[in-house]
Write a structure and sequence with these properties.
Number of strands: 0
Largest sheet: none
Strand content: under 5%
Radius of gyration: 20 Å
Order of helices and strands: HHH
Helix content: over 70%
Distance between the termini: 22 Å
Amino acid sequence: VEQGDQVHARARKNYSFVFDDLIPEEERKIKASLKKVKAESSRQRLQKKLKRLQGQVEQHKSEKRKDERKREMRTKTSTGKNGKKFFLKRS
């Protein structure tokens, strides 16, 4: 793993509460506001904000899955039963 990847992984781990707690709460608030708002300009602004938040959550989930796959591959390729290093074939 490269130095930059470690920094990004650590930052994602440290700030995961944003994606787990804060953004879903913000989404609920925006959805409630959308039901109340009548003005079209305000409605469009809220819909845009909601879409942006949902995109950020999806991006975070995909990065999390990607990190999990990397971690899993690292453990599979590290060492075998007899201590020798082995690598999985790419197929």
